[in-house]
Design goal:
With about 450 residues, this protein is an alpha/beta fold. It has twelve helices and 21 strands.
Length: about 450
């Protein structure tokens, strides 16, 4: 018998150490090392190497001999999901779906299964019993004749059922509960996650079966397990949203078969997730008119323009160090905007708390809403309202200049549909631009010009 070797593996990043460490030197996480037993059998490794050398090279192909035929995607008719996936589910792909507990991951997978009527679907649950899944099916009005439920966590048994049933789609809820019997580590450990996912990928590619793996989220908001898990799969979807809001955002972090810029927006209801076809109208539906600190801007999420409300509140600070809080907006960009306003406009905010919020619970990363955020801060500071029918676009540089943005025409067209009458945009975007007669254009070159023309 070979002598077992004990190693300590970080459950956050997969770093391997020969002794226990309190803090991981790779990811700086505390108390994340777990002891795992690794068997080393030199004779077994030697025989395995000889088997590989004697195997036929069946997977060796010449590039000129490869026949490129695009597999037909499985369209779910859930437009928001199909858009994020790149047009539908690719046969043989492995998709990792992550999100906070209770955000709606299992509900989304159930609704996906309900929409794909002509395909055999296997739902593998390691956390719920078949009766619990049946109750969810009844709540969602689920009706699918070729939908099978398997309550199992052993990967060997799951592979045997897949081989016998031959489904087109397999949903595993969740990947943290699956284990391989030849590994002595517990389910959810780095070794189990890595090896189980590798085996699932082999099954998916060999049998041309699409797999959806539901993953847990850590308290930092990342998918639990090592980053190598995200590199192994074809697509990584992140299901985001606040529990206090009914809206959910499905975002592609990685996608080998489509763009990572697309997002899908859903609303959680008592009967499941409902698609939000016009998010701009939804996010602006509760907007109050004639108040200070509120502006409207447009963000591009993939090929879709979304109008959002940018809110700001400036109030006297009761602390020696004023607060700077951003919700749905980049905190570092907020600090830059405050510095530019103090330097170029002369608005001194050192004794005021500044709060910036993107209404509706959505998160915006692109800098095209810089000007809207800056105008909202100035509006709240001066307690002056802004025209409710005005759209504000533009990126602010460190010297106070207003830089051009991309896809300005698409953003303006979306604003025209919702009845906006004016648009403030960078002067550079007016070049090679066909203005519309339905809206008034106000070009600006600097933050000083924008403040003078708007406030």
């Amino acid at each position: 018998m070979a002598k077992p070797v004990t190693k300590y593996i970080c459950q956050n990043c997969g770093y391997v150490s020969l002794r226990w460490l309190g803090k991981c030197p790779e990811c700086d996480s505390w108390n994340s090392f777990v002891e795992e037993i690794v068997h080393t059998d030199k004779h077994k490794l030697k025989s395995k190497s000889s088997d590989i050398l004697s195997a036929k090279l069946t997977n060796l192909s010449k590039v000129a001999d490869i026949n490129i035929t695009e597999d037909k995607r499985i369209v779910s008719t859930i437009e928001e999901l199909d858009r994020v996936l790149g047009g539908g589910v690719v046969p043989g792909s492995v998709v990792l779906v992550g999100g906070d507990p209770g955000i709606g991951k299992s509900t989304l997978m159930m609704q996906l299964s309900d929409k794909i009527k002509n395909n055999t679907i296997l739902y593998v649950s390691g956390e719920e019993s078949p009766k619990q899944i049946k109750l969810r099916c009844e709540r969602l009005g689920f009706a699918h004749d070729e939908f099978y439920i398997l309550s199992e966590t052993s990967l060997e048994i799951i592979a045997a059922v897949v081989d016998k049933l031959k489904p087109e789609i397999v949903i595993i809820d969740s990947i943290q509960t699956i284990y391989r019997s030849e590994l002595e580590s517990s389910p959810g450990s780095v070794s189990q996650l890595r090896e189980s996912t590798a085996a699932i990928i082999q099954i998916a590619k060999a049998k041309n079966i699409s797999f959806f793996l539901i993953g847990h989220i850590t308290k930092e908001g990342f998918i639990a397990g090592p980053k190598v898990l995200e590199h192994m799969v074809d697509t990584v979807l992140q299901f985001e949203g606040e529990r206090t809001h009914s809206y959910r955002v499905l975002r592609a972090i990685k996608n080998r078969f489509g763009s990572t810029n697309e997002i899908g927006i859903f609303e959680m209801t008592g009967t499941g997730l409902m698609e939000v076809r016009n998010p701009s109208e939804v996010f602006l539906s509760q907007r109050s008119r004639g108040i200070s600190g509120s502006t409207v801007s447009a963000s591009m999420e993939g090929t879709r323009p979304i109008l959002i409300e940018v809110q700001a509140l400036v109030s006297s600070s009761g602390y020696s160090v004023p607060q700077r809080t951003a919700t749905g907006f980049d905190y570092k960009r907020l600090a830059i905007l405050i510095a530019v306003l103090e330097k170029k406009i002369g608005i001194h905010l050192s004794k005021f708390d500044v709060f910036v919020n993107i209404a509706g619970g959505i998160k915006i990363d692109e800098p095209s809403i810089d000007l809207a955020a800056a105008i909202s801060i100035c509006s709240s500071f001066k307690d002056t309202s802004i025209d409710a029918d005005m759209l504000i676009l533009g990126e602010i540089g460190l010297s106070g200049e207003i830089r051009g943005i991309s896809f300005a025409e698409r953003r303006i067209q979306e604003a025209v549909k919702l009845g906006f009458k004016k648009v403030v945009l960078p002067s550079s975007n007016m070049k090679n631009f066909k203005p519309s007669k339905d809206i008034e254009y106000i070009p600006v070159e600097s933050i000083q010009d924008a403040i003078r023309l708007i406030l």
